[in-house]
Amino acid sequence: MGLRKFGNTDINVTPIGLGTWVIGGWMWGGADENDAVDAVTVSIEQGVNLIDTAPIYGFGKSEQIVGKAIKKFDREKIVIATKCGLEWDANARIRRNTSRQRVVKEFNESLKRLGTDYIDIYQVHWPDTNVPISETMDVFRELLEDKKIRAIGVSNFNVSQMKEVMDVAPLHSLQPPFNIFEQEAGEELLPFCNENNIAALTYSTLCRGLLTGKFTKSSVFQKGDLRKMDPKFKGKKFQIYLNCIEQLKKLAQNRNASIGQLAIEWAMSQPGVTCVLVGARNSKQAEQNINALKQKCFSKEDFKKIEQILYETVNQPLGAEFMAPPE
Question: Is this prediction's pTM over 0.85?
């Protein structure tokens, strides 16, 4: 598994990283802690070196699971990426808060949950228009100068917001949603990152599981499941995406691969992408994700066929806007 340079830092990462929102359970219908620890463990044992998490994933649970799993490994060989800037109350109501006080509080709490004394990649989870970017980035710059973090990242920022960050502090990475069905980042964000030597750590590679091909028109999502709010999983739109998936499955099967492998390999191959994040509930799913690194199955011609299939089946694609938390 080859390594890729993480922007203009001295960090090197695998092309696939483990995303850990799902193992926090919240918004994903729950999660088994032992299975979650196994997912992290197997990912690292199979060579994945980047683990991405956040306090909001299960209200601390995801970070705790990651901290538990990495104890048996050499910390210096693992790249931990976490985030800050979202707060919650006892009723799980979420809002953005990137104030100095909140960032400092979240950082110290993350260190404790993860069982480490530094964070490799520290990211603002969502832009907060109620707090000046300069206030937030002053804290990040101090953490970087004190060697408590190795890289400054932002998630879900646009180009204008990234430029504001760069006026105050170094910017090393961006984390946007990016997958076969949600390609908006490829229009402006990824080219900007490429031009400015900013690493792109993309998430939602399997589009909330839609690109695993495991869902059917009779699939039901329980209250509290993120997909119950996703317009891609509703009504006629759901059927449109399922029809597209059937065509993508045939393309993958012609190469003796799964549609999930197709989605991961497609994302890893896009210009400007440094590392793609893929979630896993258990060791089996983790192993399936890593298969995409063991053998290249698809060609540029196959990727052109993907675009043709999308053109013929999904005439009005939907983005990931529904995931944005309130200001």
Answer: yes
